[in-house]
Each structure stands twice: as structure tokens, then as C-alpha cells.
Amino acid sequence: MSNRSTRARPGRSVSSRWPVGGSRGSRGLTVGAVAAVTIALLVAGCGGKSQSPSASSPDVHPPVGKLPQATTFVTLKDIPTDAVAATDGTVVHPTESLPVSATAGGPPVATLPEKELGGPTWVPVVETAPGWQRVLLPSRPNGATGWIATGGGKVQTAHSPYAIKVDTSARRLVLTKAGRSVGTWSVAVGAPKTPTPAGRTFILASLAPAKATYSPLILPVGAHSESLDTFGGGPGTVAFHGWPQKSVFGQAVTHGCVRVPADALKQLSQVPLGTPVSIAN
Amino acid sequence: MRKHVKYGVIAGVFAAPLAVAAIVVPASASGGGDVSSAYGIAASGLLNIPRTPSVTAGSRPSTRSVVSIPGNPLVQLSVLRTRAVPGHAEASVVDLRIAKAAISPNAVLSAKLITAKCDDGVGQSRLVDVRLAGRAIQAGASPNSRITVPVEGLGGVQVTINKQVRNPDGSVTVTALELAVRALGQSQAIAISSATCAGGEAPRPTPVPSDLPVTG
Fold first, then answer.
1. pLDDT digits (tens, 9 = 90+) for B98-153
2. B214, part of any domain
3. Is B121 part of the contact surface with chain A (CB cutoff 8 Å)?
4. Burial class of residue A157 in the structure, from the number of CB atoms within 10 Å of its CB (0-12 exposed, 13-18 middle, 19+ buried)
5. Residues of A in contact with B141 (CB under 8 A)
6. Which domains are present in chain A?
7. Deepest of A47, A48, A70, B110, by most Cβ within 10 A of its Cβ?
8. Distance separating alpha carbons of residues B88 and B32, to the nearest angstrom
């Protein structure tokens, strides 16, 4: 199994661990602002405090007989990827760790834990079969899905009326509730070499860092950068979050995250975990 | 004479082999907790009992109990109780006896207590001292357990324990006990203690005091 964090990718820098705030995405920022932002990034960890290439590799080599957990830190193999059908807003929460299969009724290939990043796991349902539901998983590769058995009394179900759409070419975010627009905002998306990955994902967690530097709230999604295997010591998870400089909104300058204005962040903070997010060019 | 004919027909209900009888799944309204519903007992086939008692989340009152099933001497019970409110439904039956024929002293199915409970889309069943033709039926660890119980004069009766079904609208229906048998070219099914509910609106997240290095 190859070591993902050092695998060379054509045309893309592997040294993603460097904070490059100064060399990339500095259009429209003054030198002073760039320096300040770079320092903030270093301190916050959303900009690469990790110096070592593979120490934080998200690859998992499970002990014999143990299945990998479907978390943001893991790459799953042999699982179906999303076929981009419409969801009906059903989100589910496992009340205990559940086996995840690649096919409905097939043998388990992973487990879905009860918690993700310290909060309850909620994932959206994208397909159903008698006795089974296919859900989006927060692991690599992007679009990872798996089947969980329903009817075991272990799956709590709920409905999210929200949907989040990000248009990366227009650099706009639209939040809808029951199909009606709640707000649209100009946002910052991934730079050309570190794009925000297109596809469907979901709100994975809501994090309030103790020392908030660039944003009081971070909303990781189930997707990862496809150009950066690791970032800042983490597995390259993409997130919605705020940003101190309003000048970034409308620009393609990030390492994959979608930076949103404060008002948008406030609205997004109300959105249930598991709510689907569509990212399109 | 009419009475005897009726018994004869009903007794003939429990005849020979197989079954896959369909108890109508409750038609669910769309949307959140409004789909909660419950019923104590239902039977379709030659023995026909509508869902009794039956409640839905909008019912007034939200709890219904009955102490007998009129016109059905084969089904005896102490009480059937059902309740349905948004996000929660339950059904229970106490001291149930279903006889093969009015004449037979040996109940085909007897139960001290059979309950089904549904909370936010999670269903569970409970069986206490349930016997079919003298054989103990127990709620196992996993739902949708199926066994076939041979009953003298009836053949094999299909028993489904803790049946859990995910409905198209996302709600869950848990039925504590279902019996099915095929007789005189007809399917006969009996469902005992069934509850349906769905999760409501997904909750607003509570931020976790934590951090994750994300891609900026």
C-alpha cells in the first residue's frame, strides 16, 4: 500500500505541509497582511505546522481481524463512491459503532463509529434497499459511501431541510432550507493548484477551537483535498470557516477550505450535521 | 348454526403449509414525527381483525386501550394499549391467548406480554412468556428473526420476531410478533404490537470544543 503523503502527483507539489500563505493566494493582500495571516495560520494549524511528511498519514493498516473506522483520518478501499443521486434530506445517526458493507447485504469492510471528531455521527442517506441504507462516509476517497443495516434498532433517523451548494467558479455559496434560499454569499474557495474538491459531501462536525484565531467555528465536511494528502498535521479535511480578511471573499485562494463571511458562518452553524453539501465548478 | 359455520371457517383458517402474508404497512404521512402510529393487534385472512386499537400522532386521545376484541372468540386478552405522539409510539398487549378453535383448550399462541416501542426511528420489542404450540418464543438479539414452528393441525407457522421495516418516508415500523400461515388457498397473518415513528427534524449541532487542522 503506497504512502499517500509522499506519493508524487503530476503537476502538484507534495510539500503541502508548508504554509505557503506568502507565495500562494496573496493577490490583493498587502505584504503586512500576508505576514499576519501566515503567522495566524501557523499558530492555528490551518496552514501547516507539521514539518514531517508521513507522520500524520491518514492511511490505516488495521490490525488483523480489525476493520477500519470510517473517519476523516482514514482511506477506505473497495467501497462504492457516490453516484450523485438526489437525497431526500434523511440523515442517520448510529447509536453504536456499525458495520459498513460495500454492497447491501455484503460482508463488512469498515465500521461507522458513533462519534466523529468528538460529536455525534450524522451522515446523509443516498440510497436505500430493503433493510439497508447507503450513506456518505467522511473518509477518503471523496464520495466514499457504504451500506449500513437498518432495522437493528441502532440507527436513529432524522430529516434535515437544509442544503448547501458551493459554486467554485462563481465563488458563491447558497444555503437553502426546504428548497428556499436562506442566503447567498461570496466566498473564498481553493486556489487553482489546491482546489476545493467538486462532488457531494456533508457537514461532518462543528468545532469551536479553544484558541480561535482565524475563525470561531470550524465546520469540517466529509471531503478532503485531492491535491493535498495532509495539511497542517491533519488529513487534508476540507471545511467551512470564517476568515479575518474580507478581501478574500470571491477569490480562489485557499488550500481547499471554503472561507465564508461571518453572517454565512452564523447561518451555517445552525445547519444539522449530515446536511448534504454540493460543490460544483 | 351460523355460529358453528363461522367457527368452522375460522378453524379452517389454520390449515396446512406455508405463507407469506402481508400485513398492510401503515400508510405514512410525509414529514417528521407526524408519522407516529401504533396498533395492538391486526389480522388479515379468513380471521380478520382491523388494527385494534389504533392511534396516530394526531389522535385525540393519543392513548387507546381495549380489553377485548368483539366478535372474535378465538382471541382473548387482558388489555391492548397503544400510544402515539410525535417522535414516539408504543403498543402492548397483556395476557394474550389465540386459540386454534373455540373448542380447543390449548391455546395455539399465548403471551404474558408483548410490546413494541419506537423512539425517533429506533424500534425495539419485548416478549415475555410467549409460547406458540407450547414452544417458547423469545426476542433474540437481532431483529427480523424468523422461525417456522410446526403446529399440529396447522402445519408450519412462520414467526417473525421483532420485525423492523424502514418505510419509504424514512419512518420505522417495529412489530413485536408476526405470524403467517397459508390455509385454504388464502394467507392468514396476525401482527401483534406494532409501532411506527420517525425521527423529527435533525438537531442543531452543538459545537465541540476542539480543533482540527483543515485545509485553510
1. 987 655 667 789 999 999 999 888 889 999 999 998 899 987 767 889 999 988 87
2. no
3. yes
4. buried
5. none
6. 4-53+161-280 (2.40.440.10), 90-159 (2.30.30)
7. A70
8. 11
Are the C-beta atoms of A147 and A106 separated by less than 8 Å?
yes
The boundaries of the domain holding residue B192 are 13-197
Give Cα separations from B206 to A57, A198, A269, A271 (angstroms). 29, 27, 9, 10
Residue for grid cell 415500523? B173
pLDDT in tens, B162-199: 998 877 667 889 999 999 988 667 788 999 999 999 77
For residue B204, the chain A residues in CB contact (below 8 A) are 270-272
User: What is the per-residue DSSP string for A214-275?
Assistant: S-S-EEEEEEE-SS-S-BTTB--EEEEE--S-GGGTTSEEESS-EE--HHHHHHHTTSPTT-
Q: Which of A162, A84, A85 is nearest to A122 (CA)?
A: A162
Cell of A9: 502527483
Task: Specify the 3-state DSSP secondary structure of A79.
Answer: coil
> Rounded to whole angstroms, how far apart are CA atoms A218 and B76?
60
**Residue B198 forms contact with A (CB below 8 Å):** yes
Out of B164, B204, B213, whose CB is closest to A272? B204
Task: Write out chain A residues lying below 8 Å of B211, CB-based.
Answer: 44-45, 207, 209-210, 218
Q: Which residues of A268-279 are buried (b: 16+ CB within 10 A; e: fewer)?
A: bbebbbbbbbbb
- pTM for the model: 0.63
Q: Is residue B3 part of a domain?
A: no
Beta strands in chain B (DSSP E): 37-44, 49-56, 63-66, 75-76, 79-85, 88-99, 107-119, 122-132, 135-137, 145-151, 155-166, 172-183, 186-197
From the list B184, B167, B163, B192, the residue with the least C-alpha distance to B82 is B192
Q: Is the peptide bond before A62 cis (omega within 30 degrees of 0)?
A: no
> At residue A41, what is the residue type?
L
Whether B117 maps to a domain, the answer reads: yes
Report cis status (omega within 30 of 0) of the bond before B203.
Answer: no
